[in-house]
Specification:
By secondary structure, the protein is of the alpha/beta class. The chain contains 11 helices and 9 strands. It starts with a strand and ends in a 12-residue tail after the last helix. Bound molecules: iron/sulfur cluster. The site of iron/sulfur cluster has 13 residues, from loops.
Length: 324
């Protein structure tokens, strides 16, 4: 088992080169018989995560956030791990770089046939990347199933609220507006009964105060889809998609009927097309790499300015460059 950590800025040793840090991982996993073989494997790993081989001699401070995370990915896959746990691997990155790193993870996972446990709060990324989804609240698994099952009704009330909280920029979709009231209870001192009962709007539909007194059973919704909830089949059957395509609004806005809609999370329609092979990620890679290159140039320039200043004995504010 290997891990890709959330914050790429703290996971690399600042005083070692990128190459030596990957080689260290290879040594730990007994990959390669000698130094030459391990160096060759390290260069192949740089190829795998789409970084130039010249990065071998760079220190982490000379890399952008996305590039650092690519090194984290290279280390995670260095020992041919069977399972990789990716803990919010893109949440600390810019949105454009997030797309490139997500694509990279999917590419490598498919290529190496590795099982990946992807932990995220971003349900749009989850819908894009996952085959099966497990929704957790206060340490309880409240719902699990295939991606299509989780993103279509019937939902667990917490999943429904999560879906309604996702911003979607398409004006021709209508979204249920669900506001959760009440504080999040402490996981150290969870409420009695259902863990979600202090904030659940459906609680009043369950008789005999069951939600407040008894932990709900794991309800089988069919096809491996389960939900930790007391709601009856009748109530579940009446649940509507959180996000729907508004035909009238679309017609008013002049959006053609055959325009692609419903690819957002929570919509009961067709799921997003997952990329098929490396070519599908070329555009995201190109955007991500451009942003990363710009970041790296800015960062290098800052270091040069600081070095020049310290040689000249000039004190300046930390950030002497500007982004345009
Ligand atoms: S068991 Fe009750 S409180 Fe818990 S999610 Fe279901 S309806 Fe809401």
């Amino acid at each position: 088992i290997q891990m890709v950590f959330q914050n790429p800025f703290d996971t690399l040793n600042p005083s070692h080169t990128v190459g030596s840090q990957i080689i260290r991982t290879l040594e730990k996993f007994n990959v390669g018989k000698n130094v030459a073989e391990r160096r060759q494997r390290m260069l192949e790993l740089l190829d795998l995560v789409k970084l130039p081989r010249a990065f071998e001699t760079r220190k982490p401070r000379q890399l952008s956030g996305g590039q650092k995370q690519r090194i984290g990915v290279a280390r995670a896959f260095a020992g041919d791990a069977k399972v990789v746990v990716a803990d919010e691997p893109v949440s600390a990155l810019d949105v454009s770089v997030q797309a490139a790193v997500t694509e990279l993870l999917m590419d490598i996972q498919r290529k190496n046939k590795t099982t990946m446990l992807f932990i995220s709060h971003d349900l749009s990324v989850v819908r894009y990347i996952a085959d099966r989804v497990v929704v957790m609240y206060l340490g309880y698994i409240v719902e699990q199933g295939t991606t299509d099952q989780i993103f279509s009704p019937p939902y667990h009330p917490y999943t429904e609220a999560l879906l309604s909280a996702i911003p979607i920029a398409d004006t021709s979709v209508v979204k249920k507006h669900i506001v959760l009231e009440g504080d999040i209870p402490s996981a150290m001192n969870p409420p009695t009964g259902c863990p979600f009962q202090t904030r659940c709007g459906y609680k009043k539909l369950v008789p005999d105060n069951l939600c407040e007194t008894k932990v709900p059973p794991v309800k089988n919704l069919g096809g491996g889809h389960t939900s930790l909830c007391w709601l009856s089949d009748d109530v579940l059957a009446k649940m509507e998609p959180v996000i729907k395509f508004d035909k009238e609004h679309a017609a008013h806005e002049g959006v053609p009927d055959d325009a692609p809609h419903g690819v957002g999370p929570g919509f009961a329609g067709a799921p997003p097309q997952r990329p098929d092979g490396k070519n599908a990620s070329a555009e995201a890679d190109a955007i991500g790499e451009r942003v990363e290159e710009n970041d790296a140039v800015l960062k290098a320039r800052r270091h040069e300015v600081r070095d020049e200043d310290s040689e000249a004995g000039v004190a300046r504010p930390k950030d002497t460059t500007r982004r345009h």
